Every structure is written in C-alpha cells, then in structure tokens.
C-alpha cells in the first residue's frame, strides 16, 4: 500500500477572498474566511464556457501566508451546435459548444449549388453569424 502523506497546515493561515470572474460565480461567495485547505469551485453563467481549471485551493508555501493555487478560470462566450442546412453539411466537429471566433464551412451535396457565403462564425454575442448559405438545385 502507498504511504499515507499528511500535510500539516498551521492554524490561522488564510487566503484573501477569491477573485470574482465576469460571467461566472464561485462557491465561496457566501463565506467570510478562507483558511488554508479551502477549495473554491467556479461555474459559468448560461451561454458561457469555462476555460481553465474549475477549482482553486488556498495553500501556503512558506508556512505563514496563504495564497490561491492559481488563477481562476475565465468564462467565455460560446455558441451551440452549428445549424444544419437542407442538402448540405458543415465542417464542425461533434461538440456541444464552440468558442467565439470558431468558423464553420458548409458544403453542398453533389448536384446542389451553394448560394451565399459558405462560412459562418461564432460571434462575440454567442450566436452564429447570418445569413446561412443555401444549397439549391438537385
């Protein structure tokens, strides 16, 4: 069996309140103190995706002061699955969400011709750009 490792944390070591993040919240928002060993977990609001680790930890490196283990995550705008078009397919990978700036390119089924711009992108508002291309003919 692996040896049991114990980390002794001197009493009284605390971290400052964890940073708030735009478009998200953390589990420590109702706490007054953050003693060493505390864990704070972040979640993003609807329409946003977390980038980075979800939790930070109050640690001590010198045995006297507390500090958070790393920066909090960020919450970035996301788009949902790219819309389908009749008689065509898009290049998007199977994914639930896409970060802003993602570009998706459409291709028409054989015998159909693309009308409009063949690409759309995930906008800063978390929506796919419009108009969608169309595939006509057949």
Summarize the structure.
The protein is an all-beta fold and 138 residues long.
What do you see in this structure?
There is one protein chain. 22% of the residues are buried. By secondary structure, the protein is an all-beta fold. The chain has strands spanning 24-26, 39-44, 48-51, 55-59, 67-68, 74-80, 88-90, 97-99, 103-108, 112-115, 119-121, 134-137. The chain folds into 2 domains: 24-76, Ribbon (Complement Module, domain 1); 81-137, Complement Module, domain 1 (Ribbon). It is 0% helix and 36% strand. The mean pLDDT is 90. Strands 1-2-4-5 form a 4-stranded antiparallel sheet, with no helix packed on it. It has no helices and 12 strands.
What's the structural blueprint in terms of helices and strands?
Layout lengths: L23 E3 L12 E6 L3 E4 L3 E5 L7 E2 L5 E7 L7 E3 L6 E3 L3 E6 L3 E4 L3 E3 L12 E4 L1
Antiparallel strand pairs: 1-2, 2-4, 3-6, 4-5, 6-8, 7-9, 9-11, 10-12
The low-pLDDT segments are: none
Would you identify the CATH H-level superfamily of the largest domain? Complement Module, domain 1
Q: Would you tell me which CATH topology of the largest domain applies?
A: Complement Module, domain 1
Shape: elongated
Q: How do the strands line up in the largest sheet?
A: 1-2-4-5
* C-alpha end-to-end distance: 68 Å
